[in-house]
Amino acid sequence: MIQIDKIYSKAVNVPTFLRKLMNIMEMSEQWVTARIKQNGDSRCIPWKNLKDLILAHPDARKKVDIFAISIYGLVVFPKTLGHVDEAVTDLFDRLDKRVLPMPVILAETFRSLNACRRVREGRFIGCAQLLLA
User: Fold this and answer.
1) What is the pLDDT at residue 85?
2) Continuous segment of H or E residues that includes residue 6
3) Which of 43, 55, 64, 103 pairs as cysteine with 7 (C-beta 3.0–4.6 A)?
4) pTM for the whole thing?
């Protein structure tokens, strides 16, 4: 169950990455399937495809949604350079359900810093400027 106005948590019946992208972008299953890439242990969509869609999408509101998911994926949670990760679509999907984004950003920042500390190496995955703010 999703709890309104609560810190991000996994829901039981979460739509797949493909379905989330289809809902956010209002594009066909074939279009989205052709652009999803597997990168290591996660799936993502390249920024180039999102940029092309922002420029060509007929719905201005969807252009803003696609731009927003791009900012979350490239700036706030940059896991794979030049790609928007599956976890970002999960967060973005929940924003419509009134889940607050700040606890999620802090939790992801803590998770990334903790992972670097645990292995005593690695790269911080997140926005360092946002962490300073």
Assistant:
1) 85
2) none
3) 103
4) 0.65
